[in-house]
Amino acid sequence: MKSITFLIVFLFSFTLFAADFEETRKLSLDADDISKLFIDCGAGYLKLSGDDDLNEILVTAKIEIDNIDPEDAERIMDKYLELTLEKRGSRAELISTFERSQSIFSFIFNKHGNVRINLKIEIPANMDIDIDDGSGFIEIEEIEGDIFIDDGSDYIEITDVKGKVEIDDGSGDINIKNIIGEIEIDDGSGAIDIRNITGDIFLDDGSGKITVVEIDGNVRVDDGSGSINIENVEEDVIIEDDGSGSVHIRDIAGNVYRYDE
Fold this sequence. Notes:
Number of strands: 22
Order of helices and strands: HEEEEHEEHEEEEEEEEEEEEEEEE
Number of helices: 3
Distance between the termini: 68 Å
Radius of gyration: 22 Å
Structural class: mainly beta
Number of domains: 2
Shape: globular
Helix content: 10-25%
Strand order of the largest sheet: 1-4-7-3-9-11-13-15-17-19-21
């Protein structure tokens, strides 16, 4: 009984005097002989941009823990935070996660505050990107390499890329524009908006509105539910399946195939 009383008092005091905690850390790595950046990240936004004049990888990580005393936040970071940027052969690996465990500190921040690491990343423009993301907004721009994203949830925006874009997404809207390269998306739910693409497009979508406009290539769609709007396509449009929702297709230079009819 005494131990339970102590825990209740401790948690009450923790909640009473705690505030939001924030700390910024910076990482860098020489990009010589590195052709790909692999990113393993948990909760928090990720903003990544390419720069032709850059010869290193620059990372700014903002660590945020809601409603926590600074000393407790430091102890949690010392024990559970993994924030590293290392070279592994021809690729760089950025790990940005909090380990979850059944300890007292894990109990405290699960009950009293969100834990997230917001990332701003700058890389040489010609580098390939491989992202394994838990949740949080992803924004990528000005890349001249291939991009692969395995994402749990939240919004994804990709603009001005010269390379293949492949996305395996659980949920959340996807917005892609100004791409020179093939696009392949396997999406659970959420709206998809794709515009001004030079390359073929392959969409396998569970649910959500699909908009595809200004495409110099073929478009292939397999959709569970949600409206489909496809306009101004230079080659063929293939609708393999459309479970439910309206379909509008116009201004297609090639052929239109509807296997769902």
